[in-house]
Amino acid sequence: DMKLFDKIALLQALFVGGFGLLMTLFYIGFEQFEIKDYLFPTGIMIYIYIRNADFKGENEKDVSTAGDGEYFLEEEQRTTEAPPLDKLVVISGNKVELGKDMVLILAWATWCGHSKKAMIPWNRIVELYAHRGVKVVAITRQSPDEVQEFLLKLPRKLKYTIASDSTDVLDRLQGAFGLRRLPHAFLADGRGQVAWHGHPAHAGNALSEILDGESEDGDER
């Protein structure tokens, strides 16, 4: 479901558009002002509203997926192939390819507070598993400019690839499991098949269980 009305964005649009209207009146003069002169400030208001409005539906709000559980898939159950990552716009880090090494994927968004909480701890996953060939990539639907601005505000630099998805990678990946909430993690095996998906906080344990057959706590799977 899409939300068509955003009060904050509307106020921003009215403020900017109203300012533009006043400036137009100031330069043209009230007596010379015509109906067509409304077009420019009106266009500005529409642009500001569309650019800033939050059109996310209820299922894509800033909600933790901790209660959604996690799902291990045995090799014979791995029938969902992760979509190719070659068309992603890499903003930070190296390009990641499927079908060779294990790839841990984070679906996230700049507006999602839980995404921000999940991202810095994933540096530890890189430290623990990069030498074993595990690649890590965080993918968002936000534009590269928005992501760059977000990354500059983080207290620490991320040690893995950050990419923007302007195609359908996240739609296909989330849609395969009926998921829309963010953040969410997916683990693709060396054949490019999804071997696990769940909350990002559980990704380290999932990697350990799949690679070593036991969790990071030392419990048998």
Count of domain modules: 2
What is the count of β-strands? Answer: 7
The secondary-structure element order is HHEEEHHEHEHEEH
What would you say the CATH architecture of the largest domain is? 3-Layer(aba) Sandwich
Percent range of helical residues = 25-40%
Radius of gyration, Cα only, in angstroms?
22 Å
Percent strand:
5-15%
CATH topology assignment of the largest domain: Glutaredoxin
CATH class of the largest domain: Alpha Beta
Biggest sheet, spatial arrangement of strands: 1-7-6-3-4-5-2
Tell me the major beta sheet.
Answer: 7 strands, mixed
The DSSP helix count reads: 7
Mean pLDDT: 79
Give an overview of the whole structure:
The protein has 221 residues and is an alpha/beta fold. It folds into 2 domains: 7-52; 89-217, 3-Layer(aba) Sandwich (Glutaredoxin). The protein is built from 7 helices and 7 strands; from the N terminus they run ααβββααβαβαββα. The protein has a 7-stranded mixed sheet with strand order 1-7-6-3-4-5-2, sandwiched between helices. Helix 5 links the parallel strand 4 (135-140) and strand 5. Helix 1 packs antiparallel against helix 2. The radius of gyration is 22 Å and the shape is elongated.
